[in-house]
Structure prediction request, 247 residues.
Amino acid sequence: MFHCMEPEAEDVLSPEPQRRSICSNCDRPTRVCLCHALPFPPIQTATRILIVQHPHEARHKLSTTPILNKSLLRASSVTSRRLRRGLSPILDRSPPALYLFPSSASSTTPALHISAVRPSADLVLIAFDATWQHAREMVRASENFLSEFATRVCLDVDESIGGGSIYDSELILRKEPFAGCVSTMEAVARALRVLEPNGPEIEEKLVGVLREMVRLQAGFLKPVKPRPKLLKKKSEGKEKKEGSVQG
Prediction:
């Protein structure tokens, strides 16, 4: 008869922290898996999409770049603080390209509204995935290279009005600095609406995926409340507008 010896205290292993289960297809935690919402097969586009992702954004749980890569057949991404020759084989060929970023008072390169651009063959759309401040720095550091072949374009952005969100909703998960600022996925969706023959359909599909992503994530994150100063500015702006109409 064998007797089991009780392990000494130092021999008892503490349980390892349980790791989150990750979906092998969408690469998201299984609790917020997006496979049911992703377009299958991925959406085909005439435009090639390149996302330049800041290293900090690559670690953010609400980054939309991985979802874009899964949703669009011709989407790819690089992680870097600036674009340069040798980083992307696509850009090393100096293709006709557009890069999304609005003009500002300090901009040396003005941005055309994307609706004024006529799509061309082999067009590449470049979007920067970062916080507003980091994106400014990335664009500034990349413009010498981009000026050789790319045109700067913009969507509608108003820096005088504060506080857009990841999409128009009462639930704000990521605070944007200005009205018109949107997530990378929204920006690409709006651009493709203009550039692609079936643009409205593509935009609807991409925004649908984004809404589902935010809906799922909302169950595990606390909403970000609008800052009081922004609410005060909005209220003052509304009062001024109503006063001018009455006058």
Remarks:
- The beta strands are 48-53, 75-79, 97-100, 112-113, 124-129, 150-154.
- Helices lie at 65-71, 89-92, 132-146, 184-195, 199-218, 228-246.
- The two ends are 100 Å apart (CA to CA).
- The longest strand covers residues 48-53.
